[in-house]
Amino acid sequence: MPAFEFRLPDIGEGVAEGEVVQWFVKEGDSIREDAPLVSVLTDKANVEIPSPKTGRIVKLHAAVGEKVKVGGLLVTIDAEGGAAPSPATTSGGSHPGGPSSGPPGPPPGTASPAQPAPLVLPSSTSGTGPLASPYVRRLAAEKGIDLRTVRGSGPGGRIVESDLASPAVGGPAPPAPSGGGTGVSGAPATAPPPLTGVAERIPIRGLRRVISEHMAEATHRAAHFTYVEEIDATELVRLREKMAKHVEKSGLRLTYLPFIVKGVVAGLKAHPRLNATMDDERNELVVRSTYHIGIATAAPDGLLVPVVRDADTKSIAQLAREIQDLAERGRAGKLQRSELSGSTFTITSLGALGGVLATPILNYPEVAILGVHKIQRRPVYRPDGTIAPAELMNLSLSLDHRVLDGYEGAQFLATVKGYLEDPHQMFAELA
Known about the structure:
With 431 residues, this protein is an alpha+beta fold. Helix content is 22%, strand content 23%. The longest helix has 16 residues, at 206-221.
C-alpha cells in the first residue's frame, strides 16, 4: 500500500526539535489536506502543523509529551485513503518512547476494540478529532487528558474547559505497587505505604516543561545576585496620569511599563555590558548594539516573554501600544516564535501585585533582568527636614555575577532611577 511518511519540518530558524503537545487525529482516522494534524511546541511557541496530504492515518510515531528532532518521523499517512491496517499489522513492534497506535488498547480482561469502554467516545467524523478550541486542547495535553474520553457540554458537543474538571475524566488509576520480592537483607520487601491526601498529579508538559528546563539551565549556568534600589516615583505617577488622559482616548491603556522601558534603555546605553548575552560555548560576553526588551507576561499556559524590538526608537505611546498588543496575543496563544525570541534584556512585573521585593531568575542567555514592584504611597523625610507623602517603589536587578560586578549593576540602576524620578528627561533627549 502506498504510504507517505511525514517528518517534522523546519518550522523556524534555530529550531532543532519540537515537543508533541496534541494529536488532532488517531490511527485509522481520515484526514484532508491542510486540516489540523498535530500541535508541536518549539522554544516557547505552539505551532499547529496541518496535514500535508489527504488520506488515512496509518501510524503515529510520537506520543504526546515526546520530543522529535527536525526531520524525525511524525506520522505515516495512506495518501490514497485506503483502509488503514490494524495496529497489530502496521508496525512489527512498538515505537521506543511512544505508542504504536493512537490511544492505548484496553488491558486484558476489559472490553475488546469492538466493545469500547464506556468512557471512550468516537472521534469526530471530520477527521480532526473531538471538537475543542486550541486552548482547551493545550490544557488537556498539560493535564494528560485524552479528549476522546471527554463528553463535551458545549454547542454541538464541543468540549469546554469546565468539562476537563469532571471526576470521570482521565484514564485508569495506576496499579498498586507489588509487595513481592525480597529486600537487601533477604527479608520480604515491604511495599511503600500509599500516598494519602493527594488531590491531583499534574504532568509537567508543554510550555510548563520548557519553562522548567529554561529556569533550571539559567540557575545552573549563571551565578545570580540581586541588587535592589528604591525609586521615588512621585513625578512618574503625575506624568503618567496626565498623559493617560490623552493616550487612553484612543482605547490604549497607559501603564508604567513604557516609562520603565525608556528608563532601562537609557541605563543600557550608559552601561552597555548589561545589554548582552552569554556565549558559554566560547566563554564570551556578547554585547548587543540593538535594544530588544523582553516583557515577561503571564499567560494561561505559563510565563511568556514577548519582545519589544528596537525599543530605543519608539515613543511612549508606541511602546504602550506594542506592549498591550503582545500581552493580549500572548494570553490568547497567538504569538509567533519570532516574537518570543531575540531579547537582549528582560523586565518582569506583576503590576499592582508586584510586592515589595523579588529575586528574578535570568532569562538565559541574557545577563541581566529587572524586577518591577508595586508603587505605594509612604511618608518620607525631605532634605529640608519635613515629612511628606511620596510614591515609592522598588526595583530588583538580578545579574550574572560571572561577568558583571555589583558596582556595575548599581551604576546601571542609578541611571534608571534618575530617569524614573525625573521622567521629563525621556522627552528632553529628543530635542
